[in-house]
Design a protein that fits this description.
- The chain is mainly alpha-helical and 218 residues long.
- The chain has one domain (6-212).
- It has 8 helices and 2 strands.
- Helix 3 runs antiparallel to helix 4 (93-113) and helix 4 runs antiparallel to helix 7 (140-170).
- The chain is globular, with a radius of gyration of 19 Å.
- The model has no long low-confidence stretch (mean pLDDT 78).
- This is Intracellular septation protein A.
- InterPro entries: UCP010219 (IPR016566).
């Protein structure tokens, strides 16, 4: 167990941003951008293959280099396979984009279902974005924090899903991509801000202080 009044050092900000940004780029932003470029230049099917092809290459590269595959990349690729099959089968952009909207509700349910696990899904996803020390993740109060903050993120995904569903039903594909992407990342940013505030408050209750950057040399 962690001792009272100690400082936990996390990597520098640049390292944290790289650690968090790479899985986000690989799993969402780049596939979305490739789909839009190929969709507008070569058609719907080309956009589907481009997005799925990128995700497959991202996982393949990590496997060849014997690197850990982020949970968020693995989950997004599995879901993208289903989306691509449905898109190719139906030829419907509406059904293709309906699936990530529905996935918001799926993620919300998954977060709630895994609340009973030793480490809920949210705690495992957090490993992809910030490498917390083992002593910190194993602390009883931190375990309780991840269970409670899972409820917050379930609400974020539910609201996000309902909002993007409304936009998808009323806007064109281009407008949907712009509005839903901006709205989704705004919701995510708000959720991250609230989660960080809650996290620091949970640590403070145990006399634990977070400090960004390596400890000073003795």
């Amino acid at each position: 167990m962690l001792q009272h009044r100690i400082t936990v050092h996390l990597p520098p900000v640049g390292s944290l941003l790289r650690h968090a940004g790479i899985p986000l780029l690989e799993s969402t932003l780049i596939p979305l951008a490739l789909f839009w470029v190929l969709f507008t230049q070569a058609g719907f099917d080309a956009g589907l293959y481009a997005a799925l092809g990128w995700s497959g290459l991202a996982i393949g590269r990590r496997l060849v280099m014997r690197q850990r595959v982020p949970v968020v990349l693995l989950m997004s690729t599995m879901l993208l396979v289903v989306r691509t099959v449905v898109g190719l089968w139906t030829g419907s952009a509406f059904l293709y984009f309906l699936q990530p909207t529905v996935q918001n509700f799926v993620f919300a349910v998954a977060l709630l279902v895994t609340l009973g696990f030793e480490r809920p899904l949210l705690a495992k996803l957090a490993d992809d974005f910030c490498p917390f020390p083992e002593a910190l993740t194993g602390h009883p109060r931190i375990k309780r924090f991840f269970k409670r903050v899972s409820l917050l993120w379930a609400c974020v995904f539910l609201v996000n899903g309902a909002t993007t569903l409304a936009v998808l039903a009323t806007q064109t594909v281009g407008n949907y991509l712009v509005v839903s992407t901006a709205g989704s990342y705004s919701m995510v940013a708000l959720g991250i801000g609230l989660s960080l505030w809650w996290f620091r408050r949970s640590l403070a209750g145990e006399g634990i202080r977070l400090r960004i950057g390596a400890p000073a040399a003795a």
